[in-house]
Amino acid sequence: MAEIVTGKKGAPHTDMTPMVDLGFLLITFFMLATTFSKPKTMEIIKPAKDDPKNKDAPKVNKNRVLSILLGERDRVYFYQVAAEDIASGKPLQVDSSDFSVNGVRAVIKTRQNDVLQAYGSKDTLVVLIKGMPKATYKNFVDIIDEMRITGVRQYALVDRDKVDTVIMEQMNLIK
Amino acid sequence: MPKIKMKRQDIRMDMTAMCDVAFLLLTFFILTTKFRPNEAVQVDIPSSTAQIPLPEKDILMITVGKVGGEKDDRIFFGVDDQNTRISMLDELATKYNFTVDADMQKRFKLLDQFGVPLDQLPQLLKMSPEDLAKFKQPGLLCNPEAKLMAGQVGSDTAKNQLGELIIMARTLNPNLRIAVKADKSAEYGRIDDVIETLRKTNSNRFNLITSAKGGLGPAPAE
Asked: Rounded to 5 degrees, what angle do the CA atoms A132, A136, A138 make?
């Protein structure tokens, strides 16, 4: 009878190191190729197109309104001007700022405080956002984001009107 | 001096476990990776503090951006649902009088977005993938003042084909949600054209796609 050899032959050893190297190399590649962060969205709801028959749109006291005009080169202009002021030929007060923390956000907060003192609630403030054609999309997103950050409840994207045209001329924004 | 013979110790680590882990992770990443499709227009989206994630499906994507070194912002259109794409192609073929063969249909089905005036669509679909990658698409015609559904009548500047496409897609698939994806540096004037078109087609609810800001961002007031 043959003897059963039970001697320690040792399990066959394969060197796994290169395989591990390869594994991690591929992991690195796939990690870099993966896009994990899902894009976020901002929802915008615009009012339906104006009914031309409806001429009696509600008028809002200019003290409650802050108009913001997005301009070129990341500048933003803001003012409180009513249509009557243009007709009377008074010099218009237009200030400009930028998108830094002390810029447009401070302006909105100041206005919120004014409105809070005058009307008892800062939610009375209405912000009108208008953009010049040369403003960038980034500015547009930033200003809407700013509304959320400062907690402005009532804001609207509106078309430029006569007042804006006068202001743009005055500020030499039209070339 | 007596020579001490040191037995050389061979350190052997068992790599099997590590190998297992590596391949487990590898499998995970392979399965979760979605390769970025070859996009006709490169868009660098702005960041915001918005937190709402984009829905996974039924998206009508309007992309505004510059194409390979050109200066103007161009408008692209895309629907993620392939069945809607096929029915859209059929409708476009009837409207713009071109014939669709199986090859063109297949290409349109796999085309994530396109931006050519609609009467040039057949030429676009006849291109080989290599040519398509090199081709600089001129963007969709979008004049928000134009009458919708003008078809082939009138000059190119008096057309709003983006509006036509939006209406067509939403009729075919009412679940579509509209998303606007635009480059940071895109001009507001062009974005305004898109928003005005959306408004004209009664799509008053839409999403702007942004990326999350690094960190938590400034806290909302109060």
From this structure: 130
Distances B170 to A139, A153, B32, B167, B222 between C-alpha atoms, Å: 30, 30, 30, 5, 39
Positive or negative: CA dihedral B157, B118, B74, B142: positive
How far lies A23's CA from each of A19, A116, B13, B31, B152, in Å?
6, 62, 17, 15, 57
Q: Phi and psi of B212, rounded to 5°?
A: -70, 140
Q: Looking at CA atoms only, how far is residue A75 from chain B in angstroms?
A: 13
pLDDT tens per residue across span B107-158: 777 777 888 777 777 777 777 777 777 777 777 777 777 666 655 556 666 6
What residues in A contact B205, CB-CB < 8 Å? 43-46
Q: Let me know the angle formed at the C-alpha of A64 by A60 and A68, rounded to the nearest 5 degrees.
A: 95
Q: Given phi > 0 = left and psi -120 to 50 = alpha, else beta, which region is A141?
A: alpha
* Distance between CA atoms of residues B73 and B88, nearest Å: 25
Opening angle at CA B117, ends B173 and B204, nearest 5: 40
The answer to whether the predicted template modeling score (pTM) of the entire model surpasses 0.90 is no
Contact assignment for A135 to B188 by CB distance below 8 Å:
yes
A27/B16 CB distance under 8 A = no
Q: Do A26 and B221 touch (CB under 8 A)?
A: no
The span from the CA of A141 to the CA of A131, in Å, is 11
Q: How far apart are CA B16 and CA A86, in angstroms?
A: 81
C-alpha–C-alpha distance, residues A60 and B99, integer Å: 56
For residue B165, CA distances in Å to A32, A161, B28, B84 come to 36, 30, 39, 12
The answer to whether B140 and B64 are in contact (CB under 8 A) is no
